[in-house]
Amino acid sequence: MTSESNASANYNTFRDCLSDTLIQYCVTQKDASRPRLSGSTELDPVDSSDLGEFIDYIASETFQSLPSVFRNIQVEDADYTLPMTDEAAERALQATPTTVVDSLVTYGLLDDGEELGKLLTPVLTEYIKTLTVKVRSEIQQTGLNKLDECEICGRGWVPLTAHHLVPRAAQAKARKRAWHPEWRMQSIAWLCRACHSFVHRIETNEELARNWSTVELLVGRDDVKKWAAWVGRVRWKAR
């Protein structure tokens, strides 16, 4: 893969990691005095369309300003310390355009430019982790084929992640209390990063394991239906 094509593929991964963070910030923002790109907790579907363009702009400008070593990371590169330190993130982000910082401040995602690292360090960590860490063996052993679109919002142009329907952190308790047969313990749903994060926000791992352990149960919830309709409209242009 050429350096240019590798950077292009990496951009899509970076944008996906950034989109999850920005979507979470927008839907949990409480300060009504600031401009909003989304409907916050109301999840306004009209505003979510604008959010896609905003994410694409912030991702593009930020990614292009990263050092080439970050833009061209390959799977074989494993000499990164994760999670990324504040100092390493500061060096990587030092060329971020002021227009990016100003936009994030304007829309209430930052209070000032000094908070840029706090917002983007987790994004860089997840970006590097996604590109350098192989799929976990237990996921490969399930025999499940990766789907083409998110099982909650239906978006097919964003990378998908494996969600354990019985979260690993709760599997010991699930086995002890016989909540599910053993074959159900490694069941997986393929979700986009935003929907994956949303699922883990609405219930604890124990509640997910006990009461929401199938895709059908999850998508039948009113809050999940509302979320899916909203986030499904967060789109960006193909590069």
Description of the molecule:
This protein is mostly helical and 239 residues long. 53% of the residues lie in helices and 4% in strands. It contains twelve helices and two strands, in the order H-H-H-H-H-H-H-E-H-E-H-H-H-H. It has a two-stranded antiparallel ribbon with strand order 1-2. Helix 1 (3-28) packs across helix 2 (45-65) and helix 9 (193-202) runs antiparallel to helix 12.
Keywords:
239 residues; mainly alpha; two-stranded antiparallel ribbon; 2 strands; 4% strand; globular
Low-confidence stretches: 30-41, 134-143
**What would you report as the Rg, rounded to the nearest angstrom?**
19 Å
Distance between the termini: 17 Å
Helix content: 40-55%
- What is the number of helical segments per DSSP (H or I, 4+ residues)? 12
What is the strand arrangement across the widest sheet? 1-2
Summarize the topology:
Blueprint: H1 3-28, H2 45-65, H3 68-71, H4 86-93, H5 98-106, H6 116-132, H7 137-140, E1 160-164, H8 171-176, E2 188-192, H9 193-202, H10 205-211, H11 215-219, H12 222-231
Antiparallel strand pairs: 1-2
Short description:
With 239 residues, the protein is mainly alpha-helical. It has helices spanning 3-28, 45-65, 68-71, 86-93, 98-106, 116-132, 137-140, 171-176, 193-202, 205-211, 215-219, 222-231; strands spanning 160-164, 188-192.
